[in-house]
Amino acid sequence: MTLCLPVLTGCLSHTRKLQQPTMPSVVMSADVQQLVSNINKQYDAIQSLSATVEFQASVGGAQKGKITDYTSFRGYIRLRKPEMLRVLGLLPVLSTRAFDLASDGSTFKLWIPHENKAIEGSNTVGKPSAKPLENMRPYIFFDSLLIHSIGTEDLLSLTTDTNTVLDPKEKRLLLQPEYAIGVFRREADSNLLVPERVIHVSRTDLLPSGEDIYDKEGNIQTQAVYGPYQAFGDFRFPGSITIKRPLEEYQIVITFKEVTVNQPLEDNQFQLKIPDGTQIQKLQ
Asked: Which residue(s) pair with 229 in the sheet?
């Protein structure tokens, strides 16, 4: 073996220079109590939200062997705690309704006018559909738009990590240090800790950069990725939210054009009347 070393370390070697990623000029520190307090304050500060948005949906991935990207379209979102939601999408060019979704927190209605079709069902999926978008219930939007507060009885972990990303404008590598807050519950009559979600917090501003939400089997059910925060009046909110459903292989990118918080929203703004003659599909 020693006879091989001069060959391996001599003319047969080649050293390549790699781009060194840049660390942010400001990296902040906080303990878990401070981070939890910040998250809870952000959640408590919003009682209602109205937004003008743009949607971009994609379906598919490695399991399907293909990805289908749908044309982006404008829309509106209304949200009122505890679980009232209205999501309206407009067809490109025509600006007529592509879909209209309304939920009172326990049941929902989805109207698709151009298909003369409506879907009604429970907010929770009882029997999963083979069609991924039929499993898209209102809570997916609600949980992604707002990071829910952390309870006093939740079990927590705090870790740090650093991601390396490529700046699309300057084509240079950037380091993104973050905290990851794991939220767990203890299984009854057991020492087993069951993961419920992981909240990612950027260490450049201590604002949430994403959230992973787990199902009962410990799989990541929903991933929400928050784009850079922007000022909408006196309120700061992510300029975009990417909602990923890795098990069902689809994602929705919501880009926010206008955001207004804590304006009164009446019950009738969350009610949807399905026109007579519309084919209605009941989901479990």
From this structure: 238
pTM: 0.87
For the segment 25-48, the average pLDDT, to the nearest whole number, is: 95
- The answer to whether residue 217 sits within a structural domain is yes
Instruction: Find where tokens 């809570």 sit.
Output: 139
210: domain CATH number is 2.50.20.10
C-alpha angle with apex 48: 181 to 78, nearest 5 degrees?
Answer: 105
The answer to whether 93 and 259 have CB atoms below 8 angstroms apart is no
Q: Using the predicted structure, report yes or no on whether residue 133 has a pLDDT greater than 60.
A: no
Residue 21 domain-assigned (yes or no): no
DSSP 3-state of 263: coil
**Sequence-ordered list of residues with C-beta below 8 angstroms from that of 133, at least 6 positions apart, any chain:** 59, 250
> Is 99 a member of any domain?
yes
User: What phi, psi does 63 have (nearest 5°)?
Assistant: -65, -40
Q: Is 102:85 a contact under the CB 8 Å cutoff? A: yes
Structural domain contains residue 120: yes
- Closest by CA to 99, choosing from 121, 83, 77, 82, is 77
Judged against a pLDDT cut of 70, whether residue 7 lies above it is answered with no
- C-alpha pair distances (Å), 27 with each of 39, 177, 201, 205, 283: 18, 7, 12, 8, 48
CB 141 within 8 A of CB 103: no
Count structural domains, the chain: 1
